[in-house]
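Check the record.
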Amino acid sequence: MSARLLLGEPVAEKVRQRIGDLVTQLATEHVTPKLAVIVATDNQATNWYVSSIARAATKLAVACEVLDLGEATAETLAETIKTLNADEQIHGIILQTPLPQGIDASSLVKLIDPAKDIDGANPVSLGQLSVGQEAFAPATARSVIEILEHYRIPLAGKHVAVIGRSTVVGKPLAQLLLQLDATVTICHSRTVNLAEHTSRAEVCVVAAGQPHLLTANEVAAHSVVIDVGTHVTESGGLTGDVQADSVQPLVSALSPVPGGVGTVTTALLLLHTVQAAVNFLERSRRGECQMSVGR
């Protein structure tokens, strides 16, 4: 048996179609959705990633402004966020990491207006998500759900093991899964006997940041595995948190690296930006003031 590959591109294409429909609707109101990405690093991988977002935005008629602040101070970054919060032409804000050494990202993301927090970085967004209120989930976590739903993998009543407890993937993903009536087990670096938990799961999502952590010894036969990890190999290729060669003959479905979750993430960031623009337009019609955190 060979596992079905849960490719990200068909999922991303559907997301892009949703973006196109919303952009067309906004155009009738003379509104152009706009994303602002704050960069304060010369990290090549980060710059490549931000450039890929900008290229994807251009193709979808979403404006994207990259603010390269160099080795900015925390004060400069804070003032930039406040300015973007107040700018009604900006609908989405991303504070790209890593930041210059010594700067605490957690204190800065608190300043992002939750209405513009399209990657779910503000603790307010995460809190709203945890109680089922409307909020933008971190795009990577949401990508996992989009893939599972696209391939019609049932979640209600199913046991899902999530390996990783970051605020970017593990924790928000657990909340999204609970909202879909899954039974969720969160595993992490201190979990004793990982296989005891993962081998009983019908769906296993691996977002631990450790190459090849999950092997055939830790999965159940016929289960579904979603690999969120991305690591550069010595040969310059990419590999994930799952040892794909050993797992694939055993499981029923597996998301590949590359070509899986990461493919969907950029599209979702842009969808969230467009949805934020729609939300702003609706608030404007109701005469509500745009909330800006940290003004």
